[in-house]
Amino acid sequence: MDKSEEFDCIRRQQGKSQCLQEEERESGEETNTRRKKSSDMASSSSSCCIINIIPSIIPNILVCSLLVSCLVCTAWSSSDNETLLAGRELQRLRRIREHLKKINRPAVKTIQSVDGDVIDCVQAHQQPAFDHPQLRGQKPMDFPERPKGHEEGGMEEASFQLWRLNGETCPEGTIPIRRTSEEDMLRASTIRRFGRKVTTNFVRRDLTSSNDHEHAVGYVSGDEYYGAKASINVWTPRVANPYEFSLSQVWVISGSFGDDLNTIEAGWQVSPELYGDSYPRFFTYWTTDAYQATGCYNLLCSGFIQTDNRIAIGAAISPTSAYNGGQFDISLLIWKDPKHGNWWLQFGSGILVGYWPSILFTHLRSHANMIQFGGEIVNFRENGFHTSTQMGSGYFAEEDFGKASYFRNLQVVDWDNSLLPLSNLNVLADHPNCYDIKGGINNVWGHYFFYGGPGRNVRCP
Question: Which of 2, 77, 111, 272 has a CA that sits 20 to 30 A from residue 197's CA?
Answer without folding.
Answer: 111
